Amino acid sequence: MMADTPRFEQALADLERILRDLEDGTTSLDDALARYERGVQLLRLCYGQLKEAEQKIQQLSGVSEDGKPQLQVFDHVASVDKVARRKTPG
Q: What is d(CA 31, CA 27) in angstroms, rounded to the nearest whole number?
């Protein structure tokens, strides 16, 4: 992440502030358009950061024959739900 790129939490807070500013209707058209454009940039940034985080969430599932770790996508279902699914017929 670049030094001037806001963290996810900061970008989300900025998006919320922009939304409030646009909803109150007191900004000029030029300012509203500039804030809207900034909001779109922040939204893309947030989606990108979420996608990157999703790709990083992997769990080690073992080691291959050549000693390299085998990774699989993280299953985000709670352990309790997994047990319940196994017990449920169907």
A: 6
13 and 46 Cβ atoms separated by less than 8 Å = no
Which tokens hold the place of 61? 């599932």
Residue type, 54: E
Tell me 57's DSSP state. Answer: -
Block residue for tokens 């454009």: 37
Q: Compute the 3-state secondary structure of the chain and give helix, strand, coil in percent, each to the nearest 5.
A: 60, 10, 30
pLDDT tens string 7-42:
999 999 999 999 999 999 899 999 999 999 999 999
Report whether 12 contacts 39 (CB < 8 A): no
Q: Please tell me the distance from the alpha carbon of residue 66 to that of residue 60, in angstroms, as a whole number.
A: 15
